[in-house]
Write a structure and sequence with these properties.
Layout lengths: L1 H6 L5 E4 L6 E6 L5 H12 L4 E2 L8 E5 L4 H19 L1
Antiparallel strand pairs: 1-2, 2-4, 3-4
Length: 88
């Protein structure tokens, strides 16, 4: 599901494939710091993910995809909403 979602946002996200866990680091190509982006996701869209700059990787998001599909889809849809707003 995460792969298909990322494919639908071609040019915005790049996936670093996970080695063994259900957690992916996803690079985004927008002009906003990862902590700022996550703060907006939390406060505006009620989505909690981890900013990459907590791992020394700004412009990355740490996304867990080992969640129930409906839960993951809802979170990805909300992330999409904010991405669309940021691209305006």
């Amino acid at each position: 599901m995460l792969d298909a979602w990322l494919d639908s946002h071609e040019g915005v996200f790049t996936l670093i494939p996970p080695q063994a866990a259900a957690i992916a680091f996803v690079r985004y190509h927008l002009d906003i710091n990862s902590t700022e982006l996550v703060e907006r996701l939390i406060h505006e869209k009620s989505v909690f993910i981890v900013p990459g700059d907590h791992f020394g990787m700004d412009h990355f998001l740490r996304i867990s995809f080992g969640l129930p599909p409906d839960y993951l889809r809802a979170g990805l849809d909300r992330i999409h909403e904010l991405i669309v707003e940021l691209q305006r």
